[in-house]
Design brief:
Acts as a decapping enzyme capable of hydrolyzing monomethylated capped RNAs (in vitro). Hydrolyzes monomethylated capped RNA after alpha and beta phosphates to form N(7)-methyl-GDP. Shows low activity towards unmethylated capped RNA. The chain has seven helices and 17 strands. With about 325 residues, the chain is α+β, with helices and mostly antiparallel strands. It has a single domain, classed as Alpha-Beta Complex (Nucleoside Triphosphate Pyrophosphohydrolase), CATH 3.90.79.10.
Length: about 325
């Protein structure tokens, strides 16, 4: 059995099996969330609880999509032959919401050839390796996907929130084969978008395009909530397109004028690889905008909070300040 990555604290830490809904185990009700969750952010591991516990270093909003397959499976009988893995737990991933000094954030479009979430716009991110510090995992994934290495002492960071992710994302697409908790980290660079863009060297095996989103377009994207009937209140002056950079087959890049409507698409009921922004990314963008003070805070006082604790531990993510200065250390 693989190393336990996500644990729930109920008296003592217990692993979460692949088929269990993490949000459900933490007492998520019928609402859409998010739910404030206490976290112990450790090397290669995440401990979660709905109550404060010794060693909890943060209280973060935890959310899942309204159509989360694990939530649906909890509420309906399992069809014959519809078996989920019994020897796996919930995996841990980290994604970096990289903010430039001029307040834009980097999104990358996953290639069509990837087995999981192809053709979706997401922040750079991926699996956390065993015993890897969570910030280091995010910086490693940023480097592997975009070629960006942030200079030592020239960025700050703060955890934004947690997302329960499944793929396929809906039961109507098929039974889930991947189950993750994604930790979104906001990394605030002291460099401008232009400075960062000049150093980007995208990995063509994982990235087919990239773009920088400002708060106005990000707010419109975040407002398109997948799986709900929430009416869209989009700004009248929303630009019809955004400028992106697309990779060419010869290794070069070219400008891409992307219709804004592409970014406003929601997850369809039937499986396809239609280009759109992932549901978890919309959640992360909303948290980013909340951090900027650009939107109404999420309900239930569920924004990210650092909890004062005992002596500072060695893990980077246990530092108590709201925003942390990065060491720039990366795992190659």
């Amino acid at each position: 059995m693989a190393a336990v990555r996500v644990l729930l604290l109920s008296g003592r830490p217990e692993s979460v099996s692949f088929a269990q809904s993490v949000c459900g185990l933490l007492g998520a009700g019928p609402g859409l969330g998010p739910w404030p969750t206490y976290c112990g952010l450790k090397r290669g591991q995440l401990v979660l609880s709905d109550r404060r516990f010794p060693g909890a270093s943060a209280r973060l909003p935890l959310q899942r999509p309204p159509f989360c397959p694990f939530s649906a499976l909890d509420q309906q009988p399992r069809a014959p032959g519809a078996e989920l893995p019994t020897n796996r737990g919930v995996d841990l991933a980290v994604a970096v919401v990289l903010q430039s000094s001029d307040q834009t954030v980097l999104l990358t479009r996953r290639t069509r050839t990837l087995n999981v979430s192809p053709n979706l716009w997401v922040p750079p991110g991926g699996h956390v390796e065993p015993d890897e510090e969570l910030l280091d995992a995010g910086l490693r994934e940023l480097w592997e996907e975009s070629g960006l290495q942030l200079p030592q002492g020239q960025f700050f960071w703060v955890p934004l929130g947690l997302w329960e992710s499944a793929y396929p994302p809906r039961l109507s697409w098929g039974l889930p084969t991947y189950h993750h908790i994604i930790l979104y980290l906001l990394v605030i660079s002291q460099e401008s978008q232009q400075q960062l863009q000049a150093r980007i060297q995208p990995n063509p095996r994982e990235v087919s395009a990239l773009m920088w989103l400002g708060p106005d377009v990000a707010a419109a994207v975040a407002a398109t909530e997948d799986g709900t009937e929430t009416p869209r209140h989009l700004p009248q002056d929303l630009p019809p397109s955004v400028l992106a950079v697309e990779l060419e087959e010869n290794g070069g890049t070219r400008p891409l004028v992307l219709p804004t409507s592409t970014l406003l698409r929601t997850t369809p009921a039937t499986a396809d690889s239609q280009e759109r922004v992932s549901t978890g990314t919309k959640f992360a963008l909303r948290l980013w905008l909340q951090h900027l003070g650009s939107v109404t805070p999420l309900p239930c006082g569920s924004g990210a909070h650092w909890d004062p604790g005992p002596a500072r531990e060695e893990q980077n993510v246990d530092h108590p300040p709201t925003t942390n200065q990065g060491s720039g250390k990366q795992s190659a």
